[in-house]
Specification:
Blueprint lengths: L2 H9 L12 E10 L4 E8 L12 E6 L3 E6 L10 E6 L3 H7 L6 E8 L5 H4 L3 E7 L3 H13 L7 E7 L8 H9 L4 E6 L9 E2 L16 E6 L5 H10 L7 E4 L15 E2 L2 E2 H4 L2 E3 H4 L7
Parallel strand pairs: 7-8, 7-11, 8-9, 9-10, 11-12
Antiparallel strand pairs: 1-2, 1-6, 2-5, 3-4, 3-6, 12-15, 13-14
The structure holds flavin-adenine dinucleotide (FAD) and FE2/S2 (inorganic) cluster.
The site of FE2/S2 (inorganic) cluster has 12 residues, from loops.
Length: 288
C-alpha cells in the first residue's frame, strides 16, 4: 500500500467509533525518549476524546503489517486534551512504536479492561508498589490521586528500578520524592557510584512502612517475579485480601474477552482484569 493510501485509510472516520472492536486513529503529538529503551508518547484521537477510563486500563496499539500490543495508559483521566503511553522496546511491535515521531497516525482500540478501583480507595491510605515499567500504569494512578489529594489519606509510593539510569519519569519521581504529603521510597537492584539510596529489591522498602492495615489499600504493578514477595509483605502488614490490588500481564490478542489468550484459570485477564484484588485471585493457582 502506498503511503498516501495508508494515510487515507488511517484517517477514515469510522461512523460508529463507540463499537468497542473498532480501532480509532490517534495522532502522536509528542514522543520523548525516557531511557535507552522507553519512550513516552503523547497522543490524541482524531475523532474525539479518549473518553472515561480508570488508571490501570490499557489500549491495543496497532502497527499495520507488524502486529498489535496491549499498552497501559500512563496518564491520568483527570488530564484532558490527550493521553500518554510509555512503551518499552521489547520486540518487533514495541520497537516499531518507539520509532514513530510526532505527527504519525496510529490505530488504537480501547480503553479496555478493569483498572484500579479509585472509589474503594477514597478515604483510605494508599500504598503504591511499582517495579520497572510497572511504574507506567502506576503513574496514571499517582497523578489521579494527587489531582484529588483531599479525598485520600496517606500516600506511600514504593518504587524499585533495576539501575539508577532506568528510572522512568525522572522529573516526576523527583517531584514526588520532595512532596511533604507523599511517603516516597525508592530502591535499585544494582547501584552505580553516584547512587546514595537504598539497594535491594522493592520488598526491602517495607521495613520503613507504617500503616493502619484496615484503612489501607495497596496497588501493585511490576514484573511477575515481584508479586509473591510483595504479597507476603502485604500479608505481614495484615492488609485485608480485598484491599490488595494487583495488575496482571498476560499475552493478549483481542483484549475483549473473546479469544481466550489471556485466561487465568478460566478468568479473562483482559476483561475481568488486568487489575484484580487478591480476594479475587487467591484461589487461582495460575495467577501468581
Ligand atoms: C495489560 C498489559 C499492559 C501492558 N502495558 C505496557 C506498557 O504500558 N508499556 C510497555 O512497554 N509494555 C506494556 N505491556 C507489555 C507489552 O504488551 C509487550 O511488551 C508487547 O506485547 C511485546 O510485543 P512485541 O511485539 O514488541 O515483542 P514480542 O516479540 O512479542 O516479545 C518480546 C518479549 O516480550 C515478552 N512479552 C510479549 N508480550 C508480553 C506480555 N503481554 N507480557 C509479558 N511479556 C511479554 C515476550 O515473551 C518476549 O520475551 C503490557 C502488557 C499487558 C498485557
Ligand atoms: S485477550 Fe482475548 S480473551 Fe483476553
Amino acid at each position: 500500500m502506498s503511503s498516501s493510501a495508508l494515510e487515507e485509510e488511517l484517517t477514515t472516520e469510522y461512523e460508529d467509533w463507540t463499537n468497542l472492536f473498532l480501532p480509532r486513529t490517534a495522532q502522536i503529538l509528542k514522543s520523548t525518549p525516557l531511557t535507552a529503551t522507553d519512550t513516552l508518547h503523547r497522543l490524541r484521537f482524531q475523532n474525539g476524546d479518549i473518553g472515561d477510563y480508570k488508571p490501570g486500563q490499557f489500549v491495543m496499539v496497532s502497527m499495520l503489517g507488524i502486529g498489535e500490543v496491549p499498552i497501559s495508559i500512563c496518564s491520568s483521566p483527570t488530564h484532558i486534551g490527550g493521553f500518554e503511553l510509555c512503551v518499552r522496546s521489547a520486540g518487533t511491535v514495541t520497537q516499531a512504536i518507539n520509532e514513530l515521531n510526532a505527527g504519525a497516525l496510529v490505530p488504537i482500540r480501547g480503553p479496555y479492561g478493569r483498572g484500579f478501583s479509585t472509589e474503594k480507595m477514597v478515604g483510605h491510605d494508599v500504598m503504591i508498589i511499582a517495579g520497572g515499567i510497572g511504574l507506567a500504569p502506576m503513574r496514571s494512578l499517582i497523578q489521579y490521586l494527587l489531582d484529588q489529594r483531599s479525598q485520600y489519606g496517606e500516600i506511600w509510593i514504593l518504587f524499585g528500578a533495576k539501575r539508577p539510569g532506568e528510572v522512568l519519569f525522572q522529573d516526576e519521581v523527583l517531584s514526588w520524592s520532595s512532596r511533604p504529603d507523599i511517603h516516597f521510597l525508592m530502591t535499585v537492584d544494582i547501584a552505580n557510584r553516584a547512587w546514595r539510596g537504598n539497594v535491594g529489591p522493592v520488598t526491602s522498602l517495607f521495613h520503613y512502612v507504617k500503616v493502619d492495615p484496615h484503612n489501607t489499600c495497596a496497588a501493585v504493578c511490576g514484573p511477575p517475579v515481584m508479586y509473591r514477595p510483595v504479597l507476603r509483605e502485604l500479608q505481614h502488614l495484615e492488609l485485608p485480601d480485598a484491599q490488595m490490588f494487583f495488575s496482571f500481564e498476560r499475552r493478549m490478542k483481542c483484549g475483549l474477552g473473546k479469544c481466550g489468550h489471556c485466561l487465568i484459570n478460566g478468568h479473562y485477564c483482559c476483561k475481568e482484569g488486568p487489575v484484580l484484588s487478591y480476594a479475587e485471585i487467591r484461589e487461582l493457582p495460575e495467577a501468581m
